[in-house]
Amino acid sequence: MSRHLFSFIILFLTSMTFAQSQGDEWNLVATSRSNYFGVAMANGQIGIVTDDTPLRTKEIILNGVYDGSPENGISRIVRGIEFLNLKLFLDQKEVQSNTIENWKQVVSMKNGTSTTSFTFNNSAQITYTIIANRAVPFSAMAIVEIIPSKDLDLKASNYMIVPEELKDAKNQFRVLKDNQYRMPIFSTVAKTRTGKYTVAAATTFLFDQKVEDLQQTGNEVGFTTKLRKGQKYRFAVAGGICTSKDVTDPVNESERQPIYALQEGIDKLVSKHQKAWSVLWDSGDIQIEGDLDAQQRVRFALFNLYSYIRSGTRQSIAPMGLSSQGYNGHIFWDTELWMFPTLLALQPDLAKSCLDYRSDRLEKAKQKAFIYGYKGAMYPWESDDTGEEATPTWALTGIFEQHITSDVSIAFWNYYALTQDKVWLQKEWNVLKETADFWVSRVNENADGSFSILNVVGADEYAQHVDDNAFTNAAAIESLKNTIKAATILNEPIDPKWKTVAEKLKIHSKDGITQNYKGYDGQMIKQADVNLLAYPLHVITNKEQIERDLAYYSEKIDKKDGPAMASGVLSVLYARLGNREKAYDYFVKSYLPNSRPPFGVFSESANSNNPYFATGAGAMLQAVIFGFGGVEQTDTGFRYNKGLLPKQWKSLKIIGLGTDNRTIKIN
């Protein structure tokens, strides 16, 4: 792509961005359905992706549930039964995409809702709100409000869509009774493609006023009633989805979700959901004064990260979160290097869940090391629920992109460094020890007594089968040094080889520039690699060296297909060097070319359409917290430096930092 064409695309995206900047600091507003990319209403357990089609969702993603894909048998995160879809008929005329006007959709980040409104046939105003309940993790609800402009007959029905990857689907409608309580339940159950898991969804209707009798017609369950002119009528479809991955009996547990909803009612369920979101925002938020667009985008990035995980689940976050099956929903370095630092800063309990996920799979990491003839633990490049290597076999990254093992170890140390929780550190000591043992067994000793790591794929994935990749070696050095620190704190034995390898592992340089790998000669790189040695690693600390490496490698990164993360880390580094203009420019580059309408969801690169790329959101947020905000990770917790405010902003406030919930403000 020519430089002129790339510049034109950026200008086009910029103009599109201004067109979509509606709403306020908490609400994103869309009024156009063209080129639509939806948002996942998620609660860390299920992700319900919005659609521009009235009264239906695009898909549902189930966190941590994987089955084999038909293409190659490699595991893929499972799409669930879409259980919130509705059909409405007003005076026998169906509400459809081509029969509505004045369509508008609002994503409320504060309340975790998506509300679509429109007019139908000049006879009614209709709103439709989707909630993945943050307080009740396996449940969700769709709330419908109708204000008729004349007396109308309403027919409403709930139907479920079973994705092609599920099989043997069966549905039933029955009315359960307990004394005076009648509980109508509509349910669907299916198997995942290989039969590994059972997936079950169940719903019921909730009413504000008279409880309507429900009837089944084919594969739909619904009711009829009369609406009066000018009188608002509200009802909801409420229920849940469960799998045998999480519970022994998903069929009955899924039916308990609508039964619970019947006893709670619409308002109480909404209130619990909103309170759960309020707790998150009160304990971790970023406020930007003077730049509404930046405020919306930063908060939207936080909203998505928070949506994709919940504390105590021992689950992690895939690159696309719960927004799609992108990258098969596998767990990569994206979590530890790009998303984890923001979560650790603002929501340590959520961050801990990512570590729990890795801790639970330590034995499988040890097994992988054994398979390839190494000691210790070798974490897989792509991980699923099993913790075994889940990368497609054709991809060399699965065997050779080994820096993931250090990325995991460094995240564990950083959690301890922030919390200073020695009891936790002792419990998780084996993660640090086993990853250190891996590197000692992995290195090759050179004739001069130095060490090399040969034949790897680096963070720069364009460089395959290279020796002494800068980030791989530097991350191993930091991992080994952190393990020695942990051993000292815990009075655990220190293997002298950890120290020897950490001190003598080679990082090459040429003409004053840190080499991307041994023999590197200026080739285009996929993403930041060498620059990561200064941040988030602490291996290169000399200011002049950081500046030289920045100037050199910022021009080598693939400007067409490079992922969003590089610009985020370059922004951090320029902010720390005091270069306000470049820090801001790279901050904007970290999201603007990758934003997609109508809400600005992230795509992985300027040239792709695969949102929502949570990894890129994590990098952009690091630019704000660890760049402009001046926050620095140290071995004894966060250090709060002066920070640097872009001239476009009046102030920056970061709320809920660290374990003491500190608030900082930069004017």
From TrEMBL:
<dbReference type="InterPro" id="IPR008928">
    <property type="entry name" value="6-hairpin_glycosidase_sf"/>
</dbReference>
<feature type="domain" description="Glycoside hydrolase family 65 central catalytic">
    <location>
        <begin position="299"/>
        <end position="520"/>
    </location>
</feature>
<keyword id="KW-0732">Signal</keyword>
<dbReference type="InterPro" id="IPR005195">
    <property type="entry name" value="Glyco_hydro_65_M"/>
</dbReference>
<feature type="signal peptide">
    <location>
        <begin position="1"/>
        <end position="19"/>
    </location>
</feature>
<protein>
    <submittedName>
        <fullName>Glycoside hydrolase family 65 protein</fullName>
    </submittedName>
</protein>
<dbReference type="Pfam" id="PF03636">
    <property type="entry name" value="Glyco_hydro_65N"/>
</dbReference>
<keyword id="KW-0378">Hydrolase</keyword>
<feature type="domain" description="Glycoside hydrolase family 65 N-terminal">
    <location>
        <begin position="40"/>
        <end position="244"/>
    </location>
</feature>
<dbReference type="InterPro" id="IPR005196">
    <property type="entry name" value="Glyco_hydro_65_N"/>
</dbReference>
<dbReference type="GO" id="GO:0016787">
    <property type="term" value="F:hydrolase activity"/>
</dbReference>
<dbReference type="InterPro" id="IPR012341">
    <property type="entry name" value="6hp_glycosidase-like_sf"/>
</dbReference>
<dbReference type="Pfam" id="PF03632">
    <property type="entry name" value="Glyco_hydro_65m"/>
</dbReference>
<dbReference type="InterPro" id="IPR037018">
    <property type="entry name" value="GH65_N"/>
</dbReference>
<dbReference type="InterPro" id="IPR011013">
    <property type="entry name" value="Gal_mutarotase_sf_dom"/>
</dbReference>
